[in-house]
Write a structure and sequence with these properties.
Catalytic activity: L-proline + NAD(+) = (S)-1-pyrroline-5-carboxylate + NADH + 2 H(+); L-proline + NADP(+) = (S)-1-pyrroline-5-carboxylate + NADPH + 2 H(+)
Strand content: 5-15%
Shape: elongated
CATH architecture of the largest domain: 3-Layer(aba) Sandwich
Keywords: Amino-acid biosynthesis, Cytoplasm, NADP, Oxidoreductase, Proline biosynthesis
GO molecular function: pyrroline-5-carboxylate reductase activity
Protein name: Pyrroline-5-carboxylate reductase
Radius of gyration: 21 Å
Largest sheet: 8 strands, mixed
Strand order of the largest sheet: 3-2-1-4-5-6-7-8
Structural class: alpha/beta
Pfam family, one: F420_oxidored
Bound molecules: NADPH dihydro-nicotinamide-adenine-dinucleotide phosphate, (2S)-3,4-dihydro-2H-pyrrole-2-carboxylic acid
Number of helices: 12
Length: about 270
């Protein structure tokens, strides 16, 4: 049975671990985790039954699929540490924003590399991931892709530079929706709604909007069509949309996503 290991066992690693175990892609005893934070290892072992490794190098030497899930700022130190410990024919998956396959190969040589940009809905099997590959054979490609396909949808990109845009759109994407929920709750409370009712209404609206998006996708409809169905002529939604348009919502989103994309580019330096 193949083993998978995660170096850096934080939020995103947990989302993937939960997804691959619940999809039965890996049994918990074949999932190794490593982190400088012992509390994370203890928590993951208790919550998911995965195996804490004693060091990054021990983990790297034991797995067929090695997921590098530390923050981009910690990546060089980890790559340097594990460069002589990799299992022969292991595929290395990096999910770090900004870190290029070229950068990884500078440390690890021409090993099979998959650079992926997943997102946290992987935790509920609804992830959106884009990948680029370097030097991977069919077996390693499949092993790598299976991880992300077990937890949602996967797009394969030819042009690695587009991963920075993916990071802004879907990697960071859930945060835009969650910020919107936070603001809906805050404003509802400001408008006089009791906090518990505001929370209930906003969570249920988010869930309903998500399910409607799923329905629209299956019918080949656009988000604009969904929005129009909420918007009665001369009504309340139209009033709200006009304010957002007048305040250049499109411009605000363009600036936010451009900042995210540019930060991803910066992290590669
Ligand atoms: N969160 C997200 O939505 C997404 C994140 N990503 C990428 O995933 C990666 C992880 O992000 P995220 O899970 O949010 O980050 P976290 O900070 O939650 O997880 C990273 C973990 O790695 C630990 N760590 C730091 N240095 C080392 C080391 N040398 N060896 C082992 N472990 C170490 C960190 O400890 P400490 O905190 O003490 O530094 C932390 O526990 C990032 O590169 C990010 O760009 C990609 C897509 C989406
Ligand atoms: O904020 C970040 O840098 C990571 C990458 C995409 C989502 N979270």
């Amino acid at each position: 049975m193949n083993k998978i290991g995660f170096i850096g066992s934080g939020n995103m690693a947990e989302a993937l671990i939960k997804g691959i175990i619940s999809a039965n892609l890996y049994a918990p005893e074949n999932v190794l985790v490593s982190d400088i934070r012992q509390d994370r290892l203890k928590y993951l072992a208790e919550e998911y039954g995965v195996q804490p490794a004693s060091s990054n190098t021990e983990l790297a030497s034991q797995v067929d699929v090695l997921v590098l899930s530390v923050k981009p700022q910690n990546m060089a130190a980890v790559l340097e540490e594990i460069q002589d410990s990799l299992n022969d024919s292991a595929v290395v998956i990096s999910i770090a924003a900004g870190i290029t396959t070229e950068r990884i190969a500078q440390f690890l040589g021409d090993v099979p590399i998959i650079r992926a940009m997943p997102n946290t809905p992987a935790m509920v099997d609804q992830g959106a991931t884009a990948v680029v590959i370097r030097n991977t054979g069919p077996r390693q490609f499949k092993a790598g892709l299976d991880v992300f396909m077990a937890v949602g949808k996967v797009e394969v990109l030819e042009d690695e530079s587009l991963i920075d845009a993916v990071t802004a759109v879907s990697g960071t994407g859930p945060a835009y929706f969650f910020l919107l929920m936070e603001e809906l709750i805050n404003v509802a409370i400001d408008m006089g709604l009791p906090a518990d009712i505001a929370k209930e209404l906003v969570f249920q609206t988010a869930k309903g909007a998500g399910l409607l998006a799923e329905m629209a996708y299956s019918r080949n409809e656009t988000p604009g069509q969904l929005r129009e169905r909420v918007t009665s002529p001369g009504g309340t939604t139209a009033a709200a949309m006009k304010v957002l348009k007048d305040l250049d919502f499109n411009g605000i989103m363009t600036k936010a996503l451009t900042a995210a994309r540019d930060r991803s580019r910066e992290l590669s330096q």
